[in-house]
Amino acid sequence: MVVQAQMIQKERPTQENLISSHVFDSLKLLRKQMELLVPEKPLVSCVSLCAILAQGHVLLEDVPGIGKTTFIKSIAKMLGLDFKRIQFTNDVLPSDVIGVEVFNQEKNKFEFHKGPIFTQIVLADELNRASPRTQSALLEAMGEGSVTVEGKSQMLPRPFVVFATQNPNESIGTYPLPESQLDRFAAKIKLDYPAKAKEIEILRVATLDPLASVPERLLEIDDLVKTQAALDGVFVADRVLSIAKRVIDASRHAESIKLGISTRGGVSWIRMAKARSLIEGRDYVIPDDLMNLANSCLAHRIIPRAGLDSSEAIKNILSQVDVD
Fold this sequence. Notes:
Layout: H1 2-11, H2 21-37, H3 42-53, E1 58-61, H4 68-79, E2 83-87, H5 94-98, E3 99-104, E4 109-114, E5 121-125, H6 132-144, E6 146-149, E7 152-155, E8 161-166, H7 179-182, E9 187-189, H8 196-204, H9 221-230, H10 238-253, E10 257-259, H11 263-279, H12 287-298, E11 303-304, H13 310-320
Parallel strand pairs: 1-8, 1-9, 2-5, 5-8
Antiparallel strand pairs: 3-4, 6-7, 10-11
């Protein structure tokens, strides 16, 4: 892969730096601070940061009480972005999420009262507890960055990122996320239980504010938006696209998989790889960017046959596909 990276570097067109050295330094510091939140799990921080830069959304599938909310609140604080948490239950309605038109008698007209979805980082907690109707209210928000109320389109703030959680061990009172909903997430990650040293530290400072030591606004909002836009300029060589295509095709023809990776899934995977290349200091994607993110970006987009874990299915495909 080193040889491939050198060849791709020579192929890329000559261009000015996509992001300034100041912004790159800020990204490095941000990534370092995010890694401190989940020691020994650097991929979690990398995937989360890539999703934010790629304007994607993240699904966290894990047991309750391991710090998912604190992790996401910390990210919002580091970025200086507005944060809201929506606790989903089976009686939450779409209007509770996106808002509702209310008649103002003094003005003799209807006015739109925004719901909690109108923020920059949303924690959709226990999303699979919401009814399918309420889950579908998020589809337009996640896909288009807007919501429609009474036939009128309302734009959401920029940047806009959804971090949704679901408990894989709960079945009573839950509604599994359909494929169309899962396909809206750029990545799925697991925090798992903290490392021994980290959990001891958490127990030691249990009565303190967990966000007190988290630094604020490590990356200016304008710089974040410019970095998101810079992804369009990241070079992706044909050989890298061919690798992605081979993996996608393999998922569609594997006997162990009922439903393979969609085209939208492939596009999202490439955007995530572009984001990783930027935070690694490159303006071109290499195969390692794809491979590093493959499981996080693809496993939730397939439906394996009975008895096979989706992560294992993706690993099997990657082991069989030529990535050289």
